[in-house]
Specification:
mainly beta; Jelly Rolls; four-stranded mixed sheet; four-stranded antiparallel sheet; 3 helices
Length: about 210
């Protein structure tokens, strides 16, 4: 006969439940037992058991999701595009003890009725941690931001070696943002800029 495990039943079972270590993974498995059927709650950051009937802890779900590439989509309005000396946040700060890894970005210029003009040509678009540490190299905007049609482009992460290493305090719990390194664009009539940012979240352990 099929049985339904209610919240009240789960709470009662928890009083007699024990945390066991799974021999194969070394991860914790909580077995909620009593009358069959029983349920197992896994605390596995990598979801290694792949159990069809198992439940996962909140912490393990968050760790699993954070380890995967995620994408944030931000539409920079025409007003923001004209004032892009002021940075625009692409990915919110991840919280204390975490750092964002920039994986890449796709930029989509939705052309309006007149091209953007760069008064201080050549200008660069910069993606950086809030506070100034860049995660991309020099990225020339001429030909993209000045296009007279809908245009797409990509940005790749900067290889940060020992000579350009970022202090942990300059990356931990910092948002990713985009800005124009030169003077604000002019004209740009009706144009907007969509930025799709791919990223991972990592615990620093610091």
């Amino acid at each position: 006969m099929k049985k339904t495990l209610t919240l009240f039943t789960i709470v009662c079972f928890l009083a007699g439940a024990a945390w066991l270590y799974a021999a194969a993974t070394g991860e914790k498995v909580l077995t909620i037992h009593g009358d069959a059927p029983y349920m197992e709650v896994y605390d596995e950051d990598a979801m290694g058991s792949d159990a069809a009937g198992g439940l996962a802890t909140q912490q393990s779900i968050k760790a699993y999701v954070d380890s995967k590439i995620q994408t944030s989509t931000v539409v920079i309005t025409n007003a923001q595009l004209l004032a892009l000396e002021t940075p625009v946040t692409l990915v919110a700060a991840p919280g204390a003890g975490y750092v964002l890894e920039f994986v890449g970005a796709m930029l989509i210029l939705n052309y309006g009725s007149a091209a953007c003009v760069e008064p201080s040509d050549p200008d660069d678009l910069i993606i950086q941690y809030n506070g100034g540490a860049a995660v991309v190299g020099t990225w020339q905007t001429t030909g993209f931001i000045t296009a007279t049609a809908d245009t797409v482009a990509t940005m790749n992460p900067l290889e940060i070696d020992g000579a350009s290493a970022i202090a942990a305090t300059g990356a931990e719990n910092k948002a990713l943002e985009i800005e124009n390194s030169g003077t604000n664009y002019t004209t740009c009539a009706g144009s907007t800029l969509t930025v799709l940012t791919s990223y991972r979240v990592h615990a620093t352990g610091l």
